[in-house]
Amino acid sequence: MLHLHNILRWVIIVLLLVTIYQAFAKKQAIKSSSLWLMIAAHTMLLIGIYQLLLGRFGILNTTLPEGVSLMKSSFFRFYWVEHPLLMFAAIALITVARSRAKVLNYKSAGWLLLSALIFIIVAIPWPFRGESIGRHLFPGM
């Protein structure tokens, strides 16, 4: 599941970039691209919820080490609090942007999608974030 979650991140980033371009260029193709973006984002949400609860370091499968506070451990704070909250907010913004794109409200959709992209970029566990948090850019590498 983690590999699929990792691959879908690139699909969502590409779809977000395309849809943001279409919003600011005022292209009607935003109706279909925003739909595909929303489908990919909600699929990612379902996989992410599974990972959060039942994954390798999921809340139901892992206990915090003795004497470790959730908010003091950078690993658990990132994967149990920061990442899920930012991604949930980004997916909510994508969903609202989709409703704006359906009625061709380009400016509103564009700014909502740009905000979602910023949230996603901040919440991705990039390799430079440190050994405990960082993940490879592509699965299996």
Please characterize this protein's 3D structure.
There is one protein chain. This protein is mostly helical and 141 residues long. The protein has one domain (2-129). It is elongated and about 55 Å long. It contains four helices and no strands. 67% of the residues lie in helices and 0% in strands. The mean pLDDT is 92.
What secondary-structure arrangement, pairings included, does this model have?
Blueprint: H1 2-24, H2 30-54, H3 74-102, H4 106-123
Question: Structurally, how many domains make up the residues?
Answer: 1
Order of helices and strands: HHHH
Low-confidence stretches: none
Q: Specify the overall morphology.
A: elongated
Biggest β-sheet, characterized? none
The fraction of residues assigned to DSSP E strands is under 5%
The whole-number mean of residue pLDDT values reads 92
Task: Please give the alpha-carbon distance between the first and last residues.
Answer: 16 Å
Structural class: mainly alpha
User: Percent of residues in helical segments?
Assistant: 55-70%
- Overall number of strands: 0
Rg computed from alpha carbons, rounded to a whole number of angstroms: 16 Å
How many H/I helices? 4
